[in-house]
Amino acid sequence: AQKITQTQPGMFVQEKEAVTLDCTYDTSDQSYGLFWYKQPSSGEMIFLIYQGSYDEQNATEGRYSLNFQKARKSANLVISASQLGDSAMYFCAMREPFGNEKLTFGTGTRLTIIP
Amino acid sequence: GAGVSQTPSNKVTEKGKYVELRCDPISGHTALYWYRQSLGQGPEFLIYFQGTGAADDSGLPNDRFFAVRPEGSVSTLKIQRTERGDSAVYLCASNPGNADTEAFFGQGTRLTVV
What is the pLDDT of residue A101? Predict the structure, then answer.
């Protein structure tokens, strides 16, 4: 069974600083996908970034990058130049291989950006 | 709108009652998912539809929960004999059915059983 672990229940970061949110995963599959979602207080899950298990380059999307270390089974999210609007819950998730694309989520990290 | 739409946004019901939660996916998306998010937790998978059929319902907690998607578009999650432990946010997501695309989520239905 797949498992996602997020060990930081909450983080406080000064505005404009970079922040790293930790995510480790456990799977016996060779092919899988890793996702990060942001959930503001409105409740909607907003897709941020995706990394495929066979992708050799770390994924980047604007201010978001994913530090993918396959041997360590970690997929940390890095947010550069944090903004007040980045304050939200952040969830790491894993998708099973082809045939069933359901997501397994971690427990999340609550990020608060301090002005 | 073009996003995933869920209705109602909030539902309060009495213990023992029956409820239906509706999800309108993005047009053309063949894959549809239901998740349940309890307070302080990440979403947990309930059921996955590919077209009209439930491809995986392994996440449904018991036989009080049932979901349908009769025409391959709108889906309804049905909960019978609700219990206080069913209180949670129920999230719906859809994607085009391609393996490398993200799932698009609705804003959820907050269900409170009193």
Answer: 74
Cα angle at B14 between B13 and B20, to 5 degrees?
40
Whether residues B45 and A37 touch (CB distance < 8 A) is answered with no
* Res B100: pLDDT: 67
Give the pLDDT means over successive 10-residue stretches in chain B (114 positions).
90 98 95 95 94 92 96 96 98 83 92 98
% of chain A residues with pLDDT over 90: 81
Q: Which amino acid is at B90?
A: Y
B99 closest CB neighbour out of A35, A46, A101? A101
Residues of chain A contacting B44 with CB distance shorter than 8 Å: 105
Please check whether residue A41 is in contact with residue A32, taking contact to mean a CB–CB distance below 8 angstroms. no
Spell out the alpha helix ranges (H) of chain A. none
Residues of chain B above pLDDT 70, percent = 96
Asked if B97 contacts B110 with a C-beta cutoff of 8 angstroms, the reply is: no
Q: How many CB atoms lie within 10 A of CB B110?
A: 16
Best mutation target among B11, B100, B102, B109 (most A Cβ atoms within 10 Å) is: B102
